[in-house]
Every structure is written in C-alpha cells, then in structure tokens.
Specification:
The two termini are 24 Å apart. α1 packs antiparallel against α2. This protein is 40% helix and 15% strand. It has 258 residues and is of the alpha/beta class. It has one domain. Strands 1-7-6-2-5-3-4 form a seven-stranded mixed β-sheet, sandwiched between helices. The longest helix is centred in the N-terminal third of the chain and has 30 residues. α4 links the parallel β3 and β4. The chain is built from eight helices and seven strands, in the order ααββαβαβαββααβα.
Length: 258
Amino acid sequence: MFKLASLSISIPKEEPKAYLLVLLRVFLIACTLVPLLPLHMLWQLLKLPSPWAMLYLRIVSRIFGARVKTYGNRLRKDVFFVANHISWHDIPILGGVTGTAFVAQDGVRKWPVVGWLAEQNRTIFVSRTDKQNVAGQVAELREAIAENWSVTLFPEGTTSDGSGLLPFKPSLFATLAPPPKPMMIQPVFIDFGDVAAEIAWLGEETGWESAWRAFTRPGSYVVGIHFLEPFDPSILSDRKMVCAEAYDRVLSALSRNR
C-alpha cells in the first residue's frame, strides 16, 4: 500500500542543475501522459483491456532512473501479487512490468492528480482506520479481484528501507481464503540493491519531500523484480496461513539476495 503522508509544499534550495532535472522530468512525464491518457480512456469506454496504463507506468519508472530486470516466471492472469514495499517507486516499476491494479490506502484518492490517475489504473482503495467496516472492505476487495486479472497488495502496510521485511498484515488476505475465483498468489520480491536507502520513503518525510528527492536524483539505478513460485491459497485453511506462506517466500528471497 501507499504510505499516507501530507503534501506540504516547501521547495528546498538546490543546485541549478537539480531544478533543470525536475523540469525535464515533469516535461517528459507530461509528454507521455498527453497521448496515452486519451487512448487509455477510449479503451475503457470500449470495455477493452487497456495496455496504455502499463506503458505509461513503464516509461515513468524509466524517467525516474529505474532500469528494471525481471527474474522468474510471471503469471499473466488470475493472480494476486504480494510484494515488499520500499517506496512509491514500486508502483510504476511493478505496474509497468505487469499492468496490475493496486490496493492502496483511501487517503491516496484525495491526492492532487495522483489520486485521479490511481483511479484510472483501477486502484482499490481501503481504509486502515475504519475498523468497523472491515467486512465491507473485504467484500469490496473480493469484487474488485473478481473483475481484475491481477491485483497487487503490499501487506507490510507501510514502507521499509529494504534491508529487512516488516510483518505482513493478514486482514486483507481474508479475501483469498477462499479466493473469489480460481486464482493463484504469486509473491514478489522487489530488490533495489545498494540504492535501497536512497529510494526508500521512511520516517517523517512527507510525500512532497519524497517526490522532490526522486525528481532531483541524478543518474539511473538497477532494480530487480523477482517473481517467486506461486501457490494456491484455496488449499490453506485460513487467511493467517495464506499470509504466513506469502511472508516466508518473500523473506527467503530477500535472504538469498543479501
């Protein structure tokens, strides 16, 4: 899930080349969005599977410097991806590779521009604070899973620095015990390697500050997307077992790559 943060505007003092890099990236992102957004909306209007959001996210991740390498065999449909979470960079990187919809905190819906774009990519918004409506959120998520060919969940519920794995929250795994349709869970390990600390969104950093760091960061970096062995959630008895199985597989991948 996205980490919720305030979007206060306070432009820090930077070298002139940093501002030029910001302008260049904004220009490239806008130039990408202008032709692809109408195509995406037309495909939606015609009720056709749209490839344009996936292409847009792939280009955006590259504009921010990501050079993506994939490992393993990715499932193409009827799959629930479960991944570790480092930063909002994970969204364009993973979305650009898979075309998946995402589960995000409902606060993201209110973010200027970002919230609207997230809706266009079939984002499923859930609340971490509305404890009284867990059953309703599970039902809504089950319906969304049934409609989408792939959905991604970041079950840590927040971001980490990439050196370890935070506990997975089992509540939303209730949608998969049993799943609303025959589908598999495929754990995914996102590996930023030596640049994880530079990319991570941690502590009290606001969304604006994290975005500013990304827009002003020079150069490129390599990120590995490891598609791990999938498993059938219907053979496990409850959501806690499903959650534990996904956690163990991502943790094992992290340990192998350290």
